[in-house]
Amino acid sequence: MGSLRDQVIYPDSVEDMAARGLTDKDLEAILDIVNLNHINIHMPIPEQVQPLSLHIRKYHTHLLQFNGEGGWRFEQLDSATRLSLAEEKQRLEAQLAGIPEMQSRLNELCKILGDDSVLKTVEE
């Protein structure tokens, strides 16, 4: 599992981080921004769990998003952003709620047509 630093910089290595001109001081500065400056980035992860779990219970005030291409965005989680995320969550929940019915209908159509689908599931 490694240290917190290993987890934060993954998939990069410490050498990759150094090649980019970043140091542990840079990581510690980020932890300071998000009020986790009391955590030792060199300590193994299991030893970090207790202080971190206590900190997680606090209300989230910032949002860190990764774009999947090596970039990231860190911003304050204000009421407008929180509302936008809540609305997105509700839309996803509504879409996912319809999946069992859609799967059942797909199975029905496959039976009628005598076809298979790569998405067809075994009916109980």
Automatic annotation (TrEMBL):
Which UniProt keywords are listed?
Membrane, Transmembrane, Transmembrane helix, Transport
PANTHER family of this UniProt entry? Answer: ATP-BINDING CASSETTE SUB-FAMILY D MEMBER 1, ATP-BINDING CASSETTE, SUB-FAMILY D MEMBER
The protein in question is named: Uncharacterized protein
Q: Which organism is it from?
A: Xenoophorus captivus
